[in-house]
Automatic annotation (TrEMBL):
Record PANTHER family: CONTACTIN-ASSOCIATED PROTEIN 1, PIKACHURIN-LIKE PROTEIN
Protein name: Contactin associated protein 1
Family membership noted in the UniProt record: Belongs to the neurexin family.
Origin species: Callorhinchus milii
Topology of this chain in the membrane: Single-pass type I membrane protein
Cellular component GO terms, alphabetical: membrane
Annotated Fibrinogen C-terminal domain residues: 557-614
Length: 1270
């Protein structure tokens, strides 16, 4: 991937399009209209092989070595023929081919889905080759192979040097005797057939060195920036990369170093290294060696063999060593026969021509010579399969058979049904030689030329096979072993090398589905994808992880077997205290360990002990040479202990300091004499029970120290024992890792300190929550998950879509999103196109309740889980991967560029066991709040009149169903005008009826037979025609409640309760209420007390029917007030949260409300609206400068006062001049206080009121005066 970034802009030429027709060859072609030359991309035809060609291939000669970064395919033009899957092979000389493996060791590429659409693949690393070959694996069912190809890249120039094992090349560093570098850059390419060899080496007199070598076909990188025996610093660093590098193909190595940090790249795989030791510079002597070293100069490398093969384009710190060597520069010194070309045989007598058994149907048959008395057969093989048949032959006289194969890594031989085995670890992927010799009645089998381990068996003449698939059973080949998967070469029969080129042309022996001149074997355990120490076991096309004794499970040993803390053990039902194994970071890097769990009724304490729990005595220390006490926890690292505190709700650790003339902190501003170190080696200068960052002890928090001038008891420096002790409770600083004491070097001074065990409880990570209310996201550093990634979190929302989180790279990305109100989607791309996995919920997810999401993706599968539903799983896509590679920040709450924003709350977000601190990041991010709070926490405008705030996170709404008001903020009163004979009957229903009815969202139903002992009644009315019944509540008995307007216009409340003979009557207002002005009534009864101007009564009644205005059958005492019926307005009526007028006016079909007569909606009965206090900044109706404004009540009062003065002027003309002068001064004074005229209507005042209405300015903000020019 890195190379694509570097070369994409300048290395994108079409390399096939410019080639001549002679550059195209193929395994076969169907006819003259489908020859290989028609395989040119964007051509008018296409290449097709013969129908009998079971493994067809198309080959292109690019005319020169090229760097290839991408490939594309098409089907035959305007046809139904195309390839759906293929292999891509490349070669330097067209003789030895290597398949290109995608990340994850998958060697197949996805082909086309139609004949003309281009399918392009960017190679995750560039390859160097002159010849390319496309091998069709599968094509459209029922049709022929159709293929057109293109290769993208650029010509590649090189300077080559070859080494025969006795030759070397060295580069001298100019005139200097040594180098002292902070930064180094080294790169070269190599190819070889050897498994071992020294590629590069240089060292210095101080012990520094750098070495690159091959060992067992793997690359080893050694570096030492300096070691110290005095300070016990070992700077040696060793890193191993790659495998199977003895394949006669070019491999690219790049080393980039800055200080102790090294990026080592082998064929696109990058290893990030932090060198051991404390040094930054590399000190080397005057030269660096390539290809090996002369024996006298090897020193520490005497046992290392020199390199045997070719090196190309050697660069050292921007110096082309290869170019200088070819130019015979004086800075280059060579020994032995260094050639500036790469020989074909690489110093081997036999050409490297391997064959690959690539499928279950692969086999090869070669002839034998049965007439001779002696038979010999030898070959070399390599495989990672533990089992597979290598050789099978029937005896010529038909009396038996001979079978040789791999079984559990050994060579198993079966002769006349007598089994025998030899060898060890034969399935390690390396080349092994096998020789079989049959003489008369004896068979001798020799492995890896070790004659001492030869096996002898009685024998007859053989006829050999290699592989025994079903299609050759007719030849008598039968075996219980599986088909061999791997490579073979140098097959000899009777000491004669079998010409595999003749076999390929079917002029010798037979074969099926073989790859010639290719060893297509991949080490699927390099790199090791098994985590946490799991053992990788591989086969031809897959790998498995042995997680035994690792404490983890899963296909890659990723998931922990143990709970995260004692709190989680308690949730599992454990109630017994004792030692338990926990894994605080789950799938993270910290390993499981044992802690002590203290189980109580309320919680579970996780306790971690250490080795220094006894008092530690300290003398003779000073600030220049302080005493450092290390706190070593039992079998735990600092990272593992820190994982406990990160996930806990509360932690504490006791710390005590006892002193005799030994000072502690000195003062809050002075230099401390003692301190302790916590997480990440951070210094802390506060002591137990003190607040962080204040540099005090417990006594200093309340000024109770032995000397009030100081903030610690020990700072008094008395000649007596004193102490400062307490609990450290700030969990972000725990655990204590070191204690530093620096004031015990005076005569008689002494100190002792004690640190207790770390104790934690609770699950703080699960309630680390952030709310997303303004379409923003939280940005975290790029997450580097490695081969596996697991994610878990909770969410709640009222939205139907939004992205929970997203992390992306150049190609790879992963996104978790709410797809709809019932679907959560895991969307990802690991290099072979976008994939998605859906989890569907049977209930709505936008219900503002918590829902749990879990997701996992690894090289084997991807899976997704929602709440307690089953896992949704999908196998890994065909192009698997090694590591998820992201290079952009992790976005939580929206996708990149704030797209598809999520509105709601997310809590407990964990990725690979790491708890993401959402609250801390939310406090730093605008538009995201810490905690699950939305707009209802502090709405810009409150929901009025009992309206309920409904959180929408992106906004909010007011639920007015239980309110007698309407509108966006429940501030619009709902009322009606009642003509004579109009009334509303409201029936209370049972619970069953209410659930089945349409009023379930408007009322809390009352069950008949239940006693109602509390009422809350609110309404307003206006009328000018007494008498009238405003409210009548009847019951199953003669009990009732009524509010009536008497004939004189007074307002009266009547109760008949408990079957009393006479109703209890209370006059609410004696004045005439029938004045056509709105009046507000509020009646509250709590058990035996009814509050209307302080009146108290006893009441218990049972309700069935609530009736407003005229109802038909009334109590005789009430009937006399119901003629001719109430005429006027009622508004804002609410009875115990039931709103009959609103129900009658807002519901189309309502079985609980019956309206008799004509009811017109009107707010004529509503009193003037009293506005709530809203700041000018938050008032949505605030008028800004330049707009028409509404005057406040203060301006209104000033206007009235001005009018009254003018009337007095007309009455008393003789005082006109004096009053005019006074009026001028008065108006001038009030103008400067901001008064101006208003057209606001005069408020209505109740008749007979002796109290003036309170001024409105008490309830409204002052409005600044507009400029005079306006």
């Amino acid at each position: 991937m890195c190379f694509w970034i570097v070369f994409a802009e300048r290395c994108v030429e079409r390399l096939v399009q410019q080639q001549y027709s002679s550059s195209f060859t193929a395994s076969s072609y169907y006819s003259a209209l489908y020859t290989p030359s028609y395989g040119r991309f964007q051509g008018s035809g296409g290449w097709s092989p013969q129908t009998s060609d079971r493994l067809p291939w198309l080959q292109v000669n690019l005319s020169q070595r090229s760097k290839i970064i991408a490939i594309s395919t098409q089907g035959t033009y305007n046809s139904n023929d195309w390839v759906t899957k293929y292999l891509f092979l490349y070669s330097d000389q067209g003789k030895n081919w290597k398949p290109f493996y995608q990340q994850g060791h998958n060697w197949t590429f996805a082909g086309n889905q139609d004949s003309d659409t281009e399918k392009r693949h960017l190679l995750w690393r560039p390859v160097l080759a002159q010849f390319v070959r496309f091998v069709a694996i599968s094509w459209r069912r029922g049709h022929a192979v159709g293929l057109r190809v293109e290769v993208f890249g650029c010509p590649y120039d090189s300077e080559v040097s070859s080494f025969d094992g006795n030759s070397t090349l060295s580069y001298k560093f100019g005139n200097s005797q040594s180098t002292h570098t902070l930064r180094d850059s080294i790169s070269f390419n190599f190819k070889t057939l050897e498994t071992d060899g020294l590629l590069l080496h240089s060292e210095g007199k101080e012990g520094d060195y750098i070495t690159v070598e091959l060992e067992r076909a793997r690359l080893l990188f050694h570096i030492n920036l300096g070691s110290s025996n005095v300070h016990l610093v070992n700077g040696e660093t060793l890193v191993t990369l790659g495998s199977l590098l003895d394949d006669d193909h070019w491999h690219m190595v790049t080393i980039e170093r800055y200080g102790p940090y090294v990026n080592l790249t082998l064929d696109g795989d990058v290893e990030h290294i932090r060198c051991n030791g404390n040094f930054d510079h590399l000190d080397l002597d005057s030269q660096i060696f390539f290809g090996g070293m002369v024996t006298g100069d090897k020193h520490r490398l005497k046992e290392k063999a020199n390199f045997r093969g070719c090196l190309e384009n050697i660069m050292y710190n921007n110096v082309s060593v290869s170019a200088l060597a070819r130019a015979k520069n004086l800075e280059i010194h060579t020994t032995g026969d260094v050639m500036f070309r790469c020989p074909d045989l690489l110093y081997h007598e036999i050409p490297f021509s391997p064959i690959t058994f690539s499928s279950p149907n692969s086999y090869i048959q070669v002839p034998s010579y049965p007439s001779q008395s002696q038979f010999t057969l030898s070959f070399r093989f390599r495989s990672f399969d533990n089992s597979g048949m290598l050789l099978f032959s029937n005896f010529s006289d038909g009396v038996g058979s001979f079978e040789m194969g791999l079984s559990n890594g050994q060579i198993n031989i079966t002769f006349l049904f007598a089994p025998c085995c030899t060898g060890h670890n034969m399935s390690d992927g390396h080349w092994h030689s096998l020789q079989l010799t049959a003489r008369m009645d004896t068979v001798i089998v020799t492995i890896d030329e070790d004659e001492g381990a030869a096996v002898r068996i009685n024998s007859l003449t053989l006829r050999p096979f290699s592989g025994c698939p079903k299609r050759v059973r007719a030849y008598g080949c039968s075996s219980n072993l599986s088909t061999f998967h791997g490579c073979m070469q140098e097959i000899r029969v009777e000491n004669r090398l079998v010409d595999l080129e003749l076999v390929k042309r079917r002029r010798l022996g037979s074969y099926a589905e073989m790859l010639f001149n290719t060893c297509g074997i991949a080490d699927r355990c390099t790199p090791n994808l098994c985590e946490h120490g799991g053992i990788c076991i591989q086969t031809w096309d897959n790998f498995e992880c042995d997680c035994h004794r690792t404490g983890y499970k899963g296909p890659t040993c990723h998931n922990s077997l143990y709970p995260e803390s004692c709190h989680h053990y308690r949730l599992l039902g454990v109630r017994t205290s004792g030692n338990y194994t926990i894994d605080p970071d789950g799938s993270g890097s910290a390993r499981p360990f044992v802690v002590y769990c203290t189980m109580t009724e309320d919680t579970a304490w996780t306790t971690v002990f250490h080795l220094q729990e006894r008092d530690t005595k300290v003398t003779g220390s000073s600030l220049e040479k302080p005493f450092v006490g290390h706190i070593d926890y039992y079998n735990n690292t600092e990272e593992e202990i820190a994982a406990i505190t990160l996930g806990a709700e509360y932690c504490e650790q006791k710390i005590a300091f006892s002193c005799y003339r030994s000072r502690l902190l000195n003062s809050p501003s002075g230099l401390p004499y003692a301190w302790w170190l916590g997480r990440e080696a951070e210094k802390h200068f506060y002591w137990g029970d003190a607040s962080p960052w204040v540099q005090r002890c417990s006594c200093g928090m309340h000024r109770g120290c032995s000397d009030p001038k100081y903030y610690c008891n020990c700072d008094a420096d008395y000649k007596q024992w004193n102490a400062d002790r307490g609990l450290l409770k700030y969990r972000e600083h725990l655990p204590v890792t070191k204690v530093v004491i620096g004031d015990t070097n005076r005569t008689g001074s002494e100190a002792r300190f004690h640190v207790g065990p770390l104790r934690c409880y609770g699950d703080g990570g699960s309630w680390n929550v952030a709310s997303f209310v303004h379409g923003n996201y939280l940005s975290f550093p790029t997450f580097m998950p490695g081969p596996s990634l697991d994610i878990s979190f909770y969410f709640k929302t009222t939205s139907s879509s939004g992205v929970f989180l997203e992390n992306s790279g150049i190609v790879d990305f992963i996104r978790l999103e709410l797809r709809s109100n019932r679907e959560v989607a895991l969307v990802f791309d690991v290099g072979d196109g976008q994939e998605q996995l859906l989890a569907r919920s049977p209930v709505a997810l936008d219900d503002d309740d918590w829902h749990w999401v879990q997701a996992e993706i690894n090289v084997v599968f991807a899976r997704l889980k929602l709440d307690e539903l089953p896992w949704q799983r999908r196998e890994a896509p065909p192009q698997s991967y090694v590591n998820l590679r992201f290079n952009k920040p992790l976005f939580v709450g929206a996708a990149e560029y704030r797209l598809q924003a999520f509105f709601g709350c997310i809590r407990g977000l964990k990725m690979n066991g790491e708890i993401l601190d959402l609250e801390k990041k939310a406090n730093e991010t605008e538009g995201v709040n810490a905690g699950c709070v939305g707009h209802c926490e502090k709405p810009r405008v409150e929901c009025q009149n009992g309206g309920r705030c409904i959180e929408r996170y992106s906004t909010y709404t007011c639920d007015c169903n239980a309110s007698a008001f309407d509108g966006p903020f429940c501030s619009k009163v709902v009322g009606g005008y009642f003509e004579p004979g109009t009334y509303i009957r409201y029936s209370f229903q049972s619970v069953v009826s209410a659930v089945a009815g349409t009023m379930a969202n408007l009322m809390l139903p009352l069950i008949p037979g239940h006693n109602l002992t509390n009422e809350e009644i609110v309404f307003s009315f206006s009328t000018e025609q007494p008498p009238g019944v405003l409210l009548y509540v009847s019951s199953y008995t003669r009990d009732y409640m009524a509010v009536v307007i008497r004939h004189d216009g007074s307002l009266e409340l009547r109760y008949r309760l408990g079957g009393s003979a006479y109703p209890y009557t209370r006059t609410i207002a004696k004045d005439n209420m029938a004045d056509n002005k709105p009046h507000r009534v509020n009646i509250t009864r709590r058990d035996r007390e009814v509050y209307t101007q302080g009146w108290v009564a006893v009441a218990v009644l049972t309700h069935r029917l609530l009736t407003l205005a005229e109802i038909g059958v009334l109590d005789p005492d009430i009937q006399r007030f119901n003629t001719p019926g109430f005429t006027g307005c009622l508004a804002g009526f609410s009875f115990n949260g039931i709103v009959p007028i609103k129900a009658a006016l807002r519901s189309d079909v309502n079985h609980t409300v019956n309206v008799s007569g004509t009811l017109l909606e009107s707010n004529c009965g509503a009193p003037p609206v009293t506005l709530s206090l809203v700041s000018l900044e938050e008032d949505p109706w605030q008028v800004h400068p330049g707009e028409t404004s509404v005057s406040n009540a203060k301006d209104y009062d000033c206007n009235l006062f001005s009018l009254s003065l003018l009337s007095l002027v007309f009455v008393a003309l003789f005082l006109f001049l004096l009053l005019a002068f006074l009026l001028f001064l008065f108006l001038y004074y009030y103008r400067h206080k901001g008064s101006y005229l208003t057209n606001e209507a005069k408020p209505l005042e109740p008749s007979g009121s002796s109290q003036p209405a309170p001024p409105k300015e008490a309830n409204l903000e002052k409005i600044n005066e507009e400029p005079r020019s306006e």
